[in-house]
Each structure stands twice: as structure tokens, then as C-alpha cells.
Prior knowledge:
- The protein has 456 residues and is of the alpha/beta class.
- Helix content is 38%, strand content 24%.
Amino acid sequence: MKKIALLPLLFTAIIYAQSNDQKMLADIYKFSLTKSTCYSWLDDLSNKVGSRLSGSVGAEKGVIYTKQQLETLGLDKVYLQEVMVPKWVRGEKETAYILDDKLKINIPICALGGSVATAKSGVTAEVVEVKSLKELETLGEATLKGKIIFYNRPFEPENIDAFKSYGKCVDQRYYGAKEASKYGAVGTIVRSMNFRLDDFPHTGAQSYGDLPKEKHIPTAAISTNAAELLSKKLKENSKLKFYMKLSCQTFDDVLSHNVIGEIKGSEHPEKIMTVGGHLDSWDLADGSHDDGAGVVQSMAVVECFKKLNYKPKNTIRVVLFMNEENGGRGGKKYEDVSRRNDENHIFALESDAGGFSPRGFSFDCDEANFQKVNSWKYLFEPYFIHNFVEGGTGSDIEPLTSNKIVKAGLKPDSQRYFDYHHAANDTFDAVNKRELELGAATMASLLYLFDQYGID
């Protein structure tokens, strides 16, 4: 009988909690859409600070700016975490053209991150077009030696999730130069990583792996329009030549910083929940989508909590990671320090997929916690947030370990992201204010729920 008598009380408690959660999420979304500073922060980060490639003056300006802004929020602690980062400099603007008999056609091109320079006079060679790294093996050194290898595998258009198409193409950018060098190639060019046919070359990281320095060859991306043109021209004349000139340099590692702000937990200060994005960007633009959006959204989460007078049970830590784009040193350093300090992270959330309309989250967790997340779906559905999936979450929180941790990545609409990713058009005007603010509210809502109910 006692158990039966307790049932109405339990039911009442559940209804009360649900009502509180619905109200809190409504307050979070209202604040984010009416009073959040995130769009103003992005304006400054994009237009006053500018591009923030690791090791650059812009990156350090970004560190100073975001630290100053976090200090205005009244957090319990704001500090810098030292991290050594690579310093690669693009140099003067790249030059490239197709040489087809007497015809010279200029091509939009940009060096890939970490590439070596060509000779000062550039490099000219015949071109071999391939669709995959595997194809190099079938062609062999006899065909590839002395040539420029042209990787021209396009995005698969049938994938609804654009990141799936990216994942199936990016190996040719990252490993292309390394693999082509083994067959005696003198350079590589790769089709830019995007769906759209345009004239913007998209840069990105590449790796020579364990190849000796004398085997490093220059590597660059060409725009999708240029890739289409070059492929067409090669079908007409397989002996045409390609010229490119790159002036990039790699210097010794330099000191930089992760930027960290903290609200101490009122009940469990020893349990840490992080939210973050990466502060560095590529150098062709100001990186408003990648990842200025994630930076200011993460800052906006703690701004929202402070302005709504929400006192979290667990310690909330916003982390702006340095060097995600060409090394991942910031995420690795944060984990290293966390491990040495024996910190207990129970939850980590990353935003690094652009400032477009939020659609849901990806989760790296066990089944019990994924079921818990799905039990909250009804709270997000009024805001059209419904896509909760298991899978990759974010490269900066990937190294983070604890006895038990739930990791999440914000999933915005991905259809237009790769129009801007790593290209010169990734600028402030490409970000919609309302979409950015909705993303910040969605992140704050998930963090609130995990703070209230913990992990299983």
C-alpha cells in the first residue's frame, strides 16, 4: 500500500521536473534570440581580429580578444593554457595555369597547409588525373614519375549528410602528396572539398607522414570549376602541362594558448562539463563558420547561464582550443593537463560544423546515456531539433578521457557548409544571425539537461 501511495507523489515530481525543464529551455531560447552577444562577438572576431592560423599574429589577437570578452561575463575563473603550435606561412599568392599548346589558362589555386614551396621559378609538368589513392598503384612509377598528379574525386551528391561526402573525399587531400611522392611525382593538385561548382579553392591540412624531407613535394587545391575544366582539357589533350608556383614556409613551433573560462559547480565542483570550439582558422578568410561560430556559441552558453542566474550543479568550462586545423595541439594539450591534474570530465560538447540552423547532436556514449538523451527529445522538438545520432562528435574533444564521459557534437544543417569550408568566402557575411543564436541556445539547453540529471 505504501508503494501505491507513493506513485502519485512520484508522478507529480516528474511532471514538475518536466515543466521546469520546458520553462528553462524556453528562457534559454528567448535570451539567445533577443539578448545574446554571440553575433557581435563574431563580428569582432571576423572583422577586427581576422584570420587566425596557428602561430600567426591573428591567432594571438584572437586569444587576447576572447579572453577579454570572457572576463566581462563575471565567470569564476578565466585563464590561458600554454600550447606549442606549428607555424606555417603561405607567403605570396599562388600562381597556376594550364599550358595547352600555345594556350595559357589561369587557374584558381591555393597551397594546402604544411605544403613545401615549389622552386622560385615554379614547377611545370604533364598531368595525370586519378580518382583515388589506390589508382596510383595501378599506374605505377613508369606513368607517374616526373608528373603532377591531379586528384579529381568529387563529392558524392546522393548523401544527405554533407559530412559523409567530405569523409569519402578528404583522404586525397590529406595523403595525396605523400602517396604520389612514392612514385616520383613532382607535385599534386586536388579538387576542392565541396559540392558547389565555383572558383574558390579550398585549403586544408595535408601530411607527408614519415617521408624524408627530400621527398616532400608541393601540393595545392584547385577550385571545382578549375577541376572540371582541367579534366575536360586532359580528355582533349593528355599531353598538356600544368604550372604552379607556391611560396609557403614552415618555421619552428611557437607558443600559443587555449582560452578557458569557468563557472564553478554549486554541488559537484569536481565534476567538469566542457563546451567549446576551435579559435584558430585557415588564413584565406576570417573563418566565420569554421570555427568562429563555434567559439562564440560556446561563449554564449556561459553568458546565457550567467544572465539567467542559473547556478550549475557541476563545473562548466568553456574551452577555446588552438590549432585544430593543422595539428590538433590544443585538444591534446587540454587532455594532457586534465589527466595530470586528475580531473573528472563527465560531459563535453563541441561546435565545429558551422553556424547554420541547428538540427540536433551526435553522441559518443554508451547505450544507457544515449537512451537518456532520447528521453529529452520532446523538449527539443518545439525548436525543430530532432536529429540525435550516435557517431563522431568533434576533433578537439576526441582526446578527452575520464572514467566515464559523454561527448556530443552540435549538428547544424550541413547542406551549405562546404561552400565555405577552408575557402576565401568563409567570412562574416556568410553567417546568419538568427541561425547562429539558435545554435547557441541549443547547446546551452543540452548542457543544462546534463547538468541537471548527470550521466548514467
